[in-house]
Design goal:
The chain is α/β, with parallel strands linked by helices and 118 residues long. The protein has a single domain (2-116), classed as Rossmann fold, CATH 3.40.50. The protein contains three helices and six strands; from the N terminus they run βαβαββαββ. The chain has helices at 12-19, 37-46, 82-95; strands at 2-5, 23-26, 50-53, 72-76, 105-109, 113-116. It has a six-stranded mixed β-sheet, with helices on both faces. A hairpin with a 3-residue loop joins strand 5 and strand 6 (113-116). Helix 1 (12-19) packs parallel to helix 3 (82-95). It starts with a strand and ends with a strand.
Length: 118
């Protein structure tokens, strides 16, 4: 799966996802740090990547309607420490059929994963 990590996700998560065989890049690696959400989203879509973010600007299901993009994982943890983010995302990638998340709007919380499909 082609993935882009937003700047609010731990950079070390990229190496973990790469170890699972995912083509992963980061906003930082592409020189998009500090750019607008619109710019990050446009680049993510241009390159056909699944975006992983904590940014609530990406939380509007009407704007990011499933099947209109390459996929979006919004991580919403009560205490999003660096370690907690890594553990929750890595756990989801170990346990779930991530490939089925393409073109979906997915929310990962402390307790569950909600997947919105078209």
């Amino acid at each position: 799966m082609k993935i882009k990590l937003d700047e609010n996700m731990p950079a070390t998560l990229a190496d973990i996802l790469r170890a699972y065989g995912h083509d992963t890049d980061t906003v930082h690696e592409e020189g998009l740090t500090g750019r607008s959400d619109h710019d990050v989203w446009q680049e993510t879509q241009r390159t056909g990547r699944f975006l992983i973010t904590q940014d609530l600007d990406f939380s509007d299901l009407r704007q990011f309607k499933p099947d209109t993009h390459y996929g979006l994982l919004l991580v919403r943890l009560a205490n999003p420490s660096r370690q907690s983010l890594i553990e929750h995302v890595e756990s989801a990638f170990k346990k779930e059929a991530i490939e089925t998340w393409q073109r979906c709007f997915v929310v990962l919380t402390d307790r569950k994963i909600r997947i919105r499909r078209s």
